[in-house]
Every structure is written in structure tokens, then in C-alpha cells.
Design goal:
Helix content is about 70%, strand content about 0%. The protein contains four helices and no strands. α1 packs antiparallel against α2 and α1 crosses α3.
């Protein structure tokens, strides 16, 4: 059991930085924050406000908000490139794909799978807590499936 704990700890520590990155970029991808808008206004295309026209100001303010939203989406898109294309931010997915990153990402997935199984095994060890642990695991399996099929809003 001591050896399983050691493997669990070292796999978890080794893959923790990538797990954090993949989980965080996965969050903004779920909400499609990394999708680029089809057409976004450029700063040079914004009208120059002359005088105190409140209508022109509101229009300029709206377009400015669109540019800010576009900038955030561009940032999320670039930060998603290692996750989605195995390229560094700013690099071309067609030319600069890093196959080594594919392999370490695959190893991370297997490491996460392995360390999760080891963690589940360790959680099941104390007989007193076994029923609560099994109940939690079942809930963690059943609730996402129910939400997937019946959680439409």
C-alpha cells in the first residue's frame, strides 16, 4: 500500500502543472470563449467622435466593448493552441505542430487515469468509510450522465 501511495503522489506531482492547464483551458473551451468572432471591428475602423453627440458616444462605446470582447477571445484562442493544436501560442498549427507535446499530453492523460485509479483504491482502504466512498464514486458517475441527457436548459 505504501508503494501505491508513492506512485500516486509522484504521478500526481509530475502531471499537476499540465492537468491544471488542460482543465483551465477546457473550462473556457466548454463556454467557447476561445472561438474567434467571424468579423470583429478593428480599432482603426471605429468612428472618431466629434463634439458632444451622445448617440455617437454610445455607438463608439458599444464598438469599443466589442473590441475588448474580441481581444479576450483572441487571447483565449492563442492560449488554447497547445491544448487544441499542440502548438505554442502565436504559432501556426499547420507548420509548427509539436509531436513531442502530443506524446507528453497522452502520457499525462494516462498518468491522470492511473493516479485517479490509485486514489480510488486508496480511498476504498479504510473499511469504515467504504460505503461513503462508494456512494461518492457512484454519484460522480451517475450525476454527470443524468445532466448530459436531462440537463438541457
Amino acid at each position: 500500500m505504501k508503494r501505491i501511495r508513492q506512485i500516486h503522489v509522484y504521478l500526481g506531482c509530475f502531471f499537476a502543472p499540465m492537468i491544471l492547464y488542460f482543465s483551465l483551458s477546457g473550462v473556457w473551451q466548454v463556454f467557447r470563449l476561445n472561438d474567434l468572432p467571424r468579423k470583429s471591428p478593428k480599432k482603426s475602423e471605429l468612428p472618431v467622435v466629434q463634439g458632444d453627440s451622445s448617440e455617437a458616444f454610445r455607438k463608439n462605446e458599444t464598438e469599443s466593448a466589442q473590441i475588448k470582447q474580441s481581444s479576450v477571445r483572441i487571447l483565449f484562442n492563442e492560449l488554447s493552441k497547445p491544448h487544441t493544436n499542440s502548438t505554442a501560442p502565436g504559432a501556426s498549427p499547420r507548420q509548427d505542430r509539436a509531436q513531442g507535446f502530443d506524446w507528453i499530453a497522452a502520457a499525462m492523460g494516462l498518468g491522470l487515469f492511473t493516479t485517479t485509479l490509485l486514489g480510488m483504491l486508496l480511498a476504498l482502504q479504510p473499511p469504515k468509510k467504504r460505503s461513503r466512498v462508494v456512494s461518492s464514486m457512484l454519484a460522480g458517475f451517475i450525476i454527470p450522465i443524468l445532466l448530459l441527457f436531462f440537463g438541457r436548459i
